[in-house]
Write a structure and sequence with these properties.
The chain contains 9 helices and 2 strands; from the N terminus they run H-H-H-H-H-H-E-E-H-H-H. By secondary structure, it is mainly alpha-helical. The longest helix is centred in the N-terminal third of the chain and has 29 residues. The chain is globular and about 50 Å long.
């Protein structure tokens, strides 16, 4: 279950896309997608407090005192772990060419890249694909359902929340018997992810809940449709 805890950070990843869409007039209010707003806001405040008092200070310390080359290597290694998830979901979505690219990325980065510490695949033209089982369910025709903020897990929808479960088993965590190693890897991934999002927070404006909700929903639509999102204006 450890892997689920990092998913709530996805909303912050979506902030640059949300700002771009806002500039083009495409960031729409999503009240119709949020019938459980009262519950969601309560969970949002809980998650936000956890981040403010625990995750963010640790991430800031890591960012300030860890040499940049170490941060880059750690980040690359965790991305390499995630490429396995991308690979399986591309296969499930019938994207054979993308799955082949993902397979090559994992092989090259895990070997020549020393367990993923060095990203040798991207300079070779093997681009990374961001896929998960929630996107796979969307490709299979399942509607997203209402927006839902889960404690610890964070922003999601009913479909994407269910979709997180299979993704757990596409990661190394369930197959590592050593609890200390498992916990260390997970904590490291959370800190690495949070540290790489620090600069993006400055882009948030207005009601933080509404901004992050809309950013998440827009980003999920963008990913689920492989960027083929129609402009309503």
């Amino acid at each position: 279950m450890l892997k689920l805890g990092i998913k709530w950070l996805d909303a912050v990843k979506a902030i640059p896309l949300a700002v771009a869409m806002m500039g083009s007039g495409s960031l729409l209010a999503a009240e119709g997608d949020d019938p459980w707003e009262g519950f969601n806001r309560t969970m949002f405040r809980f998650n936000d407090a956890l981040d403010r008092w625990a995750l963010k200070p640790v991430a800031e310390t890591y960012k300030e005192y860890t040499p940049e080359f170490i941060q880059t290597g750690v980040h690359n290694a965790y991305l390499n772990m995630g490429d396995g998830v991308n690979l399986v979901n591309n296969l499930l979505q019938g994207k054979v060419e993308d799955a082949g690219s993902d397979t090559s990325r994992v092989l090259f980065n895990s070997t020549f890249g020393v367990l993923g510490l060095v990203d040798v695949a991207t300079p070779m033209g093997l681009q990374r694909h961001e896929e998960d089982f929630g996107q796979t369910l969307a490709v299979w025709g399942l509607n997203s359902g209402p927006y839902l903020v889960l404690p610890f897990f964070g922003p999601s929808t009913v479909r994407d929340g269910v979709g997180q479960i299979p993704d757990i088993f596409m990661q190394p965590y369930p197959y590592i018997d050593n609890t200390a190693v498992n916990a260390t890897l997970f904590v490291g991934q959370v800190v690495d992810t949070r540290a790489n999002l620090l600069s993006k927070e400055k882009l948030i404006t207005g009601d933080r809940y509404v901004f992050i909700r809309n950013a998440y929903l827009q980003n999920r639509e963008f990913l689920s449709k492989d960027g083929q999102v129609e402009d309503d204006f």
